[in-house]
Amino acid sequence: MTKFSTTLAAALLMAASPGQTAEAQAQAHADEGDLAEKIVGTWELVSYQVEDKATGALIDAMGSAPRGRVIFTQDGWVAFNLEGTDRKPAETDADRAALMKTLVAYIGRYRIEGDQWITQVQTAWAPEWVNTEQRRSIKLHGDEADVMTPWRIMPNWDAGRLSRSIIRFRRAR
């Protein structure tokens, strides 16, 4: 981003948020730029848990040793592919259907808003996600990223109940 466009964006942000001080608005914009720069690269999955909203129970929806990557590009693309533990090749249509319960995958353009990345999904393992926005809160701690989804009904687990995913990534080496 050029210095002019950064200044213009900060000015527009300040005009659009009259309840905040100029310093708070400028800091929010700087934090977004900082997060956008820090997430670029490849991140490997460390853990994936799902919290059931009604019970508070934590579920290892992807098993004890899931694998996967999320890749953020400098030019605003994200590719997200996560797989459950010990997936085996399918031998039947029922096996192939069962494999969908241990997969989350999508690609799209992303942007940063505050502490969230928002993806405009262009392709996905679940067709109902195509042309939707997926929001994820993200907190960076050095080479680790803690990610949380909003409450929602996932197409592949928790039997149609509200849940949210709690995910940890580590920067790939």
Care to describe what's here?
Helix content is 23%, strand content 42%. The chain is of the alpha+beta class. The protein is built from three helices and ten strands. The two termini are 27 Å apart. Strands 1-3-4-5-6-7-8-10 form an eight-stranded antiparallel barrel. Helix 1 crosses helix 2 (22-39). The protein has helices at residues 3-16, 22-39, 93-99, and strands at 41-52, 58-59, 67-72, 77-83, 103-113, 116-124, 133-141, 144-148, 152-153, 162-171. The radius of gyration is 18 Å and the shape is globular.
Provide a short characterization of the protein structure.
The protein has 173 residues and is an alpha+beta fold.
Q: Could you outline the blueprint of secondary structure elements for this entry?
A:
Blueprint: H1 3-16, H2 22-39, E1 41-52, E2 58-59, E3 67-72, E4 77-83, H3 93-99, E5 103-113, E6 116-124, E7 133-141, E8 144-148, E9 152-153, E10 162-171
Antiparallel strand pairs: 1-2, 1-3, 1-10, 3-4, 4-5, 5-6, 6-7, 7-8, 8-10, 9-10
Helix pairs in contact: 1-2
